[in-house]
Amino acid sequence: MDKSTFQPYEEExxxxxxxxxxxxxKYEDIQQESTLFSDEEILKSIKSFQNxxxxxxxxxxxxxxxxxxxxxxxxSFLMKFTGFNFTSHSKxxxxxxxxxxxxxxxxxxxxxxxAFQLEFQLLEMQDNEEMSAVVSDLSIIxxxxxxxxxxxxxxxxxEHGDLLTFFIxxxxxxxxxxxxxxxxxxxx
Length: 188
Known about the structure:
The protein is α+β, with helices and mostly antiparallel strands. It folds into two domains: 1-54; 82-186, no CATH class. The protein is 61% helix and 28% strand. It contains four helices and four strands. The protein has helices at 3-35, 39-82, 148-160, 163-187, and strands at 84-96, 100-111, 114-127, 130-142.
């Protein structure tokens, strides 16, 4: 056999041997660096890191407690101001893509003395930097559907999916409903 036939293999073997030698040197350098630190120094560094992390957690925890208290105070104020008291809320994601999310919401609560339940789908779409939301399949259940005016209003609201109008109108209606009820109780 000709020596030229084995030449590429010999060159490959030499290249691999050189690579092995370089990697061995690199490994030995790393080993030397790691032996520069004693076990005691490594343990001190670990304890120092743990202490710093725990202090950060304690600081964040107190900040979170303060924020939670502030939110609870704000929620209490809003409940007194609007008369709304939400008792339950559930959300289920039906579809999610990069720029579109469809969620089904169920919400129940009271506004003054009137109980209500809502069920609706919320379609959120993002175009560039703008976010838009559309309410669909709105269903409203209330005790006062017996009143024909309220029933008509709720039907129109369900058709248009207008939650803002519903909450504003319900707040006003429930407040006056409470006044009427108290007045009639006074005369009984």
